[in-house]
Amino acid sequence: MAGNTGEAKRAGTSRRTLLLALLMGLLAGVVTAVLLLADFGQTGDPREASTGRALIGGPFSLVNAEGARVTEKDFSGKPMLVFFGFTNCPDVCPSGLQIIAAALDQLGDKAKALTPIFITVDPERDTPEVTGQYVKSFHPAIVGLSGPADDVAGAIKVYRVYAKKVENPETPDHYNVDHSAFLYLMDKNGEFIRHFPHTVDADTLATELAKVL
Predict the structure, then answer these.
(1) Which of 115, 148, 171, 195 is most exposed by smallest CB count within 10 Å?
(2) Is 195 annotated among the ligand-binding residues?
(3) pLDDT band at 55 (very low <50, low <70, confident <90, very high)
(4) Is 198 assigned a ligand-binding role in the annotation?
(5) Which residues lie closer than 8 Å to 126 by C-beta, 6 or more apart?
(6) Residue 25 pLDDT > 50, yes or no?
(7) CB atoms within 10 A of CB 180
């Protein structure tokens, strides 16, 4: 009897431990979902009601291709489509910029009501002039921004972009930059509306942009 009682106690303890583990796992999942929603906000139709202000976007101070200092206030009054990347990017950035360019062409005159912006994550190599020339090779309407490393880091931070320099000891001058690759749609007041993956097709992007123009 004593043995059976001990086994019953151990079984009860195991069940309680398992239940506690399941509850903790469920709680972790809920917390993760809340954090993701806070980071990326509305990801569906931009006309749908939002549950709160997304923590994406904010003040920045950078330099354009002409060498002029610009801030987010210089672009107020028009929606912005903001894309972070770098000119030596082998595939993701050119692909994303090509899609943006194709969407702008589809929008035609409506595109004039939008400011597409490319912000470098590699200010060490991408001077304002280099960045500006790079984006103009994709579409004349795209604005290229760079600046001192601290200012670029500030823009990266407010848009919650991941960017990390990856060096190769054998070729230190030919480093890469790992970075997230979302297109951020901001309203005319600089508030976050939604984001798109860099793989979004031009037709979809043009359709969604037209809704806010």
Answers:
(1) 171
(2) no
(3) confident
(4) no
(5) 86, 87, 120, 134, 146
(6) no
(7) 17
